[in-house]
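To close the section, here is one more complete example, presented without commentary so you can practise reading it yourself. The ligand is zinc ion.
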Amino acid sequence: MKGGRRKLIISFHDLHPGSWECCRRFLERCRSYGANALSLLLVPRYHGQPPFTENRAFVRWLNKVSDRGYEICLHGYYHKAENISGGFKERMVAKYYTNREGEFYQLSTKTAQQRVSDGLHLLNQAKLPVYGFTAPAWLISDAARQVLIESGFLYHTLWGRVELLQAGSSVPASTLVYSSRSVPHRAISRAWIPFFHRRNRKASILRLAVHPSDFRYRAVEDRIYALLEEALQTRTPSTYLDLIPEASRRPVGTAADHTR
Ligand SMILES: [Zn+2]
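Output:
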């Protein structure tokens, strides 16, 4: 692959023991298209389930793929938002736009510190290096964003850009993502995504985000692979970590553990 080529950052969201098999199949298929670099967005205790570290086979697999160059990115702690507050707009966003999955959307400093610290503690236990964070539904409170900076995260991602937190800059990076939640969502995605892909053809960084729920629908799955194949003709498969200069790639420590 040529270094100057445009990048395609492929990310698998909501990875936890329950979506492991789906992720494995996706990675295999990506490999068949020559894509051997992906960002895997791990949820330490998806929807309040036991910590992922309790599944030893899953941890072994994560270590294996991490050693092979796949990047593990922290993706919330529980993923689900248990408390929703605020005015009409905030409630609409939290309940309907995110389907109550925007865990970090309204978090206070104290709760964000605790969740980030607990997540890092589990990743540390599993000996998995982590460099970045993606908030569930790409929504994050200012307080939680500040916690990420202070904890040493190198980046966090939003829908349209990636913020390089320690460098204090951001890079535009549009995301192709299907909404598989309902029939109308899927119909809109089918119409919108090819158009959006064409519009972003020349962008130096493009992202393809997939969720385990996408693979419940054959039509969505087929379109994801068609899109992937097309994008890879002109783009190099990359991870979020590839956006960070090599000299600055230090994994996030567990300094936040002081809150424990
Ligand atoms: Zn998610």
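Once you have examined the tokens, check your reading against these statements. The chain has seven helices and ten strands. The first strand starts at residue 6 and ends at 15.
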